[in-house]
């Protein structure tokens, strides 16, 4: 048995440092999660500290926000992970020579995302009833409007992530989590958009989730369904999902023409 060698340990560390140096997503991810958590919960704490009476009257607003946020999160992962599973299994090359059209691939990814989201979120919604005596289904038809808009936002992010993974390889697969949480501080999940600094608010209003969560709070506080917020979220979603879908189809076409789909995998 050989003696412990610091040199061999150093060689292993050097290997991983070289990997990190050549992969900007890995470096970004290390600093990203602490920063995002700090920003989200910093704004949340700031809002709660100055609106303690609002918090006491909020009831299930926070539970509803968590459940609806998970719709967007699962919608994104449903698309991105379904696509990456094709890459992990080296199946993209087989699909590229099959009769499957790229637009049909996108439709299949979106359908799978819906199934994954229903399986993941509906049990949590039902579990909230006996545990917290809160039913998000009491929102009625507006719940469907919120659900659809957040799902489509997740689809747009998932398609954009899939396009980047197809373009840059599996080294950027962590973007499936990074990109959706980049939206979280600006979405106003747990606090109104007015809590954000003035220079950030226009950027937040350019994102569909901000309109959805503001509309949810207005409804749950007795202000009724906000049709303007719904229209803004729907219009922005139509723009973003069309852009993300077009980006994915374009990169898929380039990769197919260059034969790159045969070289992807784990």
Would you mind describing this structure in some detail?
- It is a single chain.
- The protein is mostly helical and 266 residues long.
- It has one domain (24-263).
- The chain is 77% helix and 0% strand.
- It is built from eleven helices and no strands.
- Helix 2 packs parallel to helix 8 (175-187) and helix 7 (141-168) runs antiparallel to helix 10 (208-220).
- It is globular, with a radius of gyration of 21 Å.
User: Gap between N and C termini, in Å?
Assistant: 34 Å
Number of helices: 11
Q: Helical proportion?
A: over 70%
Assign an overall shape: globular
Number of domains: 1
Mean pLDDT: 83
Structural class per helix/strand content? mainly alpha
How much of the sequence lies in strands comes to: under 5%
Biggest pleated sheet: none
Cα-atom Rg, whole angstroms? Answer: 21 Å
* Secondary-structure element order, N to C: HHHHHHHHHHH
SS elements, strand count: 0
Low-pLDDT residue intervals, each spanning 5 or more residues = none
Task: List key phrases describing it.
266 residues; 77% helix; globular; mainly alpha
SSE topology sketch:
Blueprint: H1 6-21, H2 24-50, H3 52-58, H4 61-88, H5 92-96, H6 102-132, H7 141-168, H8 175-187, H9 201-205, H10 208-220, H11 227-257
Helix pairs in contact: 2-8, 4-6, 4-7, 4-8, 4-10, 7-8, 7-10, 7-11, 10-11
